[in-house]
C-alpha cells in the first residue's frame, strides 16, 4: 500500500491528503465494504452515464483523506462543512477524480 501525502491547493493554501489503511478502515466502517462505497459515489445506476456524483459521499471521503493528511502533518482537522466549502472552490469533478484515483492506488497500487 502506497502512503504518500499529496496536496490540494486552494486559494494558495496547500491542504495535505492521504489514502491510508486508516482511511480505508473508515470507509469500510461507514459503507460496510469498499464496493458499497463505489456504488454510493454515484447516486443511481442511470446517473453513471451523466456522471452525477453523490456530493455527501464525496465530501465524507475527502474529509477522511484530508484529516488523515492533517494528522500526518500535524495540521488542523477539518469539519465536513469546511471540506464542502473547499471542494466547491476546488471543483467537484476534480475532487471526485482524486478520491477515486487515490482509493484505487491505495488498494491496488500505482499501476492499477
Overview features:
112 residues; 6 helices; 9% strand; mainly alpha
Can you walk through the features of this model?
The protein has 112 residues and is mainly alpha-helical. Helices cover 61% and strands 9% of the residues. The protein is built from six helices and two strands; from the N terminus they run E-E-H-H-H-H-H-H. It has helices at 21-31, 34-40, 47-50, 55-72, 80-90, 92-108; strands spanning 6-10, 13-17. Strands 1-2 form a two-stranded antiparallel sheet. The longest helix has 18 residues, at 55-72. The two termini are 12 Å apart.
Rounded Rg: 13 Å
Cα separation of the termini: 12 Å
Shape summary: globular
Judged by helices, strands and strand pairing, the structural class is mainly alpha
How many helices does DSSP assign?
Answer: 6
Beta percentage is 5-15%
The arrangement of helices and strands along the chain is: EEHHHHHH
Largest sheet: 2 strands, antiparallel
Give the spatial strand order of the biggest sheet: 1-2
Helical content stands at: 55-70%
Tell me how many strands there are.
Answer: 2
Identify low-pLDDT runs: none
Could you tell me the mean pLDDT?
87
Secondary structure layout:
Layout: E1 6-10, E2 13-17, H1 21-31, H2 34-40, H3 47-50, H4 55-72, H5 80-90, H6 92-108
Helix pairs in contact: 1-2, 1-4, 4-5, 4-6
Task: Give the structure's gist in a few sentences.
With 112 residues, this protein is mainly α.
